[in-house]
Structure prediction request, 116 residues.
Amino acid sequence: QVQLVESGGGLVQAGGSLRLSCVLSGSVFSINDMGWYRQAPGKEREWVATASSGGRTNYVDSVKGRFTISRDNAKNTVYLQMNSLKPEDTAVYYCYSKRPGSQSAWGQGTQVTVSS
Prediction:
């Protein structure tokens, strides 16, 4: 059974930084694309970033230059380093994994709150 466990959320002032972590179990990490979505109150879930199994990274325009996604295949972990945080980054952040031929799996979410 695929399981994703996120950590690292919290409350931070605008301009601050947080690092989210997500550990995958029950699947071969190296063949999974890994990434993050977020959902702000009253809004739809929004894709944030992806680190593909081949090492490519992509970001939504609103976080480019501020967020960095990385993966450690030895630790089955994907990270999201978030710098220069803004109040509009406030959301529940969800980790996902996607391996070829299977549906995505999701974590339980971690709250990020950025105060102004």
Remarks:
- DSSP finds no helices and eleven strands in the chain.
- The radius of gyration is 13 Å.
- Residues 33 and 52 are 4 Å apart (CA to CA).
